[in-house]
Amino acid sequence: MILKLGLPKGSLQDATFKLFANAGWEIRVDSRSYQPTVDDPEISALLIRPQEIPRYLEDGILDAGLTGKDWIEDNGADVHEVCELTYSKATRNAIRVVLAAPQDSPIEGPKDLAGKRIATEYVQLTERYFRSHGVPDVKVEFSWGACEVKVPVLADAIVVNTETGSSLRAHNLRIVDTLLTSTTRFVANHDAWADPLKRAKIEDMALLLTGALNAHALVGLKMNVSESKLSEVVAQLPSLKRPTVSPLYADSGFAIEIIIEEKQARDLIPRLKRAGAEGLVEYPLNKVVY
After folding, report:
1. What pLDDT score was predicted for residue 239?
2. How far apart are CA 171 and CA 153, in angstroms?
3. How much is the pLDDT for 17?
4. Between 23 and which of 121, 138, 196, 208 could a Cys-Cys bridge form, CB atoms 3.0 to 4.6 Å apart?
5. pLDDT (tens digit, 9 = 90+) per residue, 198-217?
6. Do 192 and 198 contact (CB within 8 A), yes or no?
7. Are 284 and 218 in contact (CB under 8 A)?
8. How buried is residue 89: exposed, middle or buried, by Cβ count under 10 Å (0-12/13-18/19+)?
9. Ramachandran angles phi, psi of 190, nearest 5°
């Protein structure tokens, strides 16, 4: 069994490769190649623009792949969503697909763009958006990226995705409306999902990829503590967490281990030390499977 896997080329590529590495797969690719090597003989990967992945899945060329909810919606693709993977190129936040116009323009909503020109990579999504607002005569033109520079000379407004909004602000644009909020999705075509072997592989991958994301911003913390200080140390631990407490050899106290948010460690470790904990060790996590 070989699973044909589509991986997003472009802005999501590095973040995706890092996620797979944390999940247990090493992916390597030459700068000019579209065929990465994966240290798993059951996976044959292709590096493809995320815009195209839903179409190749629907057509059966790919068995599974990672792409944005925005591109699934734009393509109107009929695919099986396996799981949501909330990560993007710069942060772990969702992106927004937005309608943006110049700061000093009178445009306040979609109806103000009747008869106007819109530049976007999301042609079908944008056309459906304007139809749903009763604006059928807007001119939606496909743009090969860099939509921001086309306003106002080549277009009156744009529909783009934004993660932080910094590019829009840099080009003196403001958000008029949000068409949708999008995150990365692990999706499969229906035939692959119906195949028991491929489905098992896809489900295993989803489990490990989700586990890798769960581990983001978490750390493990372990320490030793004498019996006389045990209650005082445990009282400092986050109330919603259940620590593992194990006796040390020869009745020399206890070992405590807990998983916490990384941002908690800065304040927690000094408190634990003052309460009597010793040998405190903070360590990173690759996967947390609930």
Report:
1. 64
2. 13
3. 95
4. 208
5. 999 999 999 999 999 999 88
6. yes
7. no
8. middle
9. -65, -35
Q: What is the 3-state secondary structure (H, E, C) of the chain?
A: CCEEEEEECCCCHHHHHHHHHHHCCCEECCCCCCCCEECCCCEEEEEECCCCHHHHHHCCCCCEEEEEHHHHHHHCCCCEEEEEECCCCCCCCCEEEEEEEECCCCCCCHHHHCCCEEEECCHHHHHHHHHHCCCCCCEEEECCCCHHHHCCCCCCEEEEEECCCHHHHHCCEEEEEEEEEECEEEEECHHHHHCHHHHHHHHHHHHHHHHHHHHCCEEEEEEEECHHHHHHHHCCCCCCCCCEEEECHHHCCEEEEEEEEHHHHHHHHHHHHHHCCEEEEEEECCCCCC
Q: How confident is the model at residue 30 (pLDDT cuts 50, 70, 90)?
A: confident
| Token reading at 145 | 């990226």
Vertex 102, ends 101 and 108: CA angle to 5°? Answer: 50
90 has pLDDT over 90: no
pLDDT for residue 59: 95
Q: Are 50 and 12 in contact (CB under 8 A)?
A: yes
Instruction: Give the number of other CB atoms < 10 A from CB of residue 114.
Output: 13
**Domains of the chain, CATH where assigned:** 3-90+183-215 (3.40.190.10), 95-182 (3.40.190.10), 218-284 (3.30.70.120)
The pTM (predicted TM-score) of the whole model is 0.86
The residue with tokens 């109806």 is 111
Q: How far apart are CA 140 and CA 157, in angstroms?
A: 10
88 close to 184: Cβ distance less than 8 angstroms = yes
Q: Tell me, what amino acid is at 200?
A: A
- For the residues 58-66, what does the mean pLDDT come to? 97
Q: Which amino acid is at 87?
A: Y
